Amino acid sequence: MLEERSSLGGQIYKRLGKGFIVDPETARLGKDYDDGTQLVEAAIASGTTILSDCVVVAIDSATITYSVGEGKTQQIIARNIIIAAGASDRAIVFPGWTLPGVFTAGGAQTLVKTQKINIGKKVIFAGSGPLALAFPSQLAGYGVNLVHVLESGPPPRVIDILRILGAVAGNIHLLRDAARYRWNLLRRRTPLSYGRIVVRAEGDGLLERVVHAASDENWNPIEGTEESIEADALCLGYGFSPSVEALRLLGCEFTVNEDLGGPCVVIDEYCMTSVAHVWAVGDGAGVEGVYVAMAQGKIAAINCLQNESKMSDAIAQKRIAIQQKKIRQKRKLVKATNRMYRFGAGAYSLATQSTIVCRCEEVTMREIDIAMHYGADTMSIKSLTRAGMGLCQGRNCQRQIAARIAAKTGISFEDIPMSTPRLPLRPISLGSIADSSVVSEKFFTPTEGQSHD
After folding, report:
1. Segments of the chain assigned to CATH 1.10.10.1100
2. Dihedrals φ, ψ of 122, to 5°?
3. Most exposed among 121, 133, 210, 450, judged by the fewest C-beta atoms under 10 Å?
């Protein structure tokens, strides 16, 4: 197991940061933490070789190149590969989104949940979907002063409730959680406004006000409906985007589904991609939540065992069928809530000409528009403006740029290709990939007793 984080647990079952000591007798860290502890202990007890703080630099067919810590890169040959790369927060660009005090849900969760840092004195949560209930409730439970929740989708109707009740089989725990989250906001008297989207964040050097407006069914702001709320922290939860870099480098087939985060790898009912012996599971294959992720992980693992003749076909198919049923149940619930929680493309139309789109390279929308005259595609704009060349490698800005191209040219959003994937997949120190066999008197000046690097 090649784990990018320094500890197991992922985003849902994230462990506390280094330096924290957990007393199992007195600690009250919540059900997620306890469930995660059991999973982590089971993984360790399984005898699996687990390499944490591990960066996958490149992946080519069966060869995976990786580095642990600050160590040199190594390679491993795999007969079967399961990629569970997870997802990152979907960035929504609007004037002021780069102000100090504006957080993504994942960033805020890391600070509040695992570092015990309060993100502000007056906090607003803006977003959509189940996260817009769950995360504000969790923030309030950690002692954060949540002053308002802005849900971009519409309020539930009777027909939505009936559809949800029709999907109760296998999902009662999720519905119970949703009811608990809503009750937590009600008893704390936290205002929850539906059909509202953030259009600006304002402040002199840091966040002071959040301006929001009513939105139509596609999340386009409605003129003349703007309102302002004083706040020093804004948490954004407009969904997540799959981390697909490794899958794209392998040449897997892709499709586009904004409700699942945008670019999604094509997988069959066994979670196998179009590339032989490569499986994709969890939010990295399309954002469907933790329970679908766990079921998909089990399906892929069983497939690998079957391929290695470690499990009979009969037992494998029986166990896979159980997990596939769980996935169908979860997807039925998602379908029942689709009217309320579908992603609105209007979220990509909030930026003005002076708004920074690529925060890594500080490229504005005006520069994007100018570059579009010379090449209306993500690669040309990347070459002309450096948008997408920064630390995040386009994870924050690429979908925004593609949406702008679609709006200006009339090309379907789904038909605009992503920029070409490159290695290294993650930032890595030069010392990790330097090869001492490369010698050049002009460019390398080795120190006595040290190798060329």
Report:
1. 351-415
2. -130, 105
3. 450
Pick the more confident residue, 321 or 135: 321
Q: Are 14 and 116 in contact (CB under 8 A)?
A: no
Dihedral, 34, 37, 38, 44 alpha carbons, nearest 10: 180
CB-based contact 125:181 (threshold 8 Å): no
**Nearest residue to 163 via CA among 391, 32, 338:** 338
pLDDT digits (tens, 9 = 90+) for 81-97: 999 999 999 989 999 99
Whole-number Å distance between alpha carbons of 240 and 258 = 10
Residues of the chain with CATH 3.50.50.60: 89-240
Superfamily of domain 89-240: FAD/NAD(P)-binding domain (3.50.50.60)
Confidence at residue 9, expressed as pLDDT on a 0 to 100 scale: 87
Contact 113, 221 (CB under 8 A): no
447 pLDDT band (50/70/90 cuts)? low
CB–CB of 199/221 below 8 Å?
yes
Q: Which two tokens stand for residue 82?
A: 């399961």
Distance CA 402, CA 434 (A): 35
Q: What is the pLDDT of residue 156?
A: 92
Please say whether the structural domain 351-415 has been given the CATH code 1.10.10.1100: yes
Contact (CB, 8 A) for 236 and 198 = yes
Residue 94 CA to its chain's centroid (Å): 19
In sequence order, what are the residues at sequence separation of 6 or more whose Cβ sits closer than 8 angstroms to the Cβ of residue 409?
A: 372, 376
| Token output for 113 | 């949940």
**240: phi then psi, degrees, rounded to nearest 5:** -135, 160
With beta carbons less than 8 A apart as the criterion, state whether 34 and 12 touch.
no
227: which residues sit within 8 A by CB, 6+ positions away? 211, 212, 213
φ, ψ of residue 230 in degrees (nearest 5): -70, 135
Neighbours of 347 (CB within 10 A): 26
Map residue 322 onto helix, strand or coil: helix
User: What are the Cα distances from residue 441, in Å, to 201, 338, 431, 432, 445?
Assistant: 53, 63, 19, 21, 7
Query: Partners of 103 in the beta sheet?
Result: 235
Give the torsion through C-alpha atoms of 166, 170, 171, 177, to 10 deg. 140
**pLDDT per residue over 350-380, tens digit each?**
999 999 999 999 999 999 999 999 988 899 9
Write the pLDDT tens digit of every residue in 196-236. 999 999 999 999 999 999 999 999 999 999 999 999 999 99
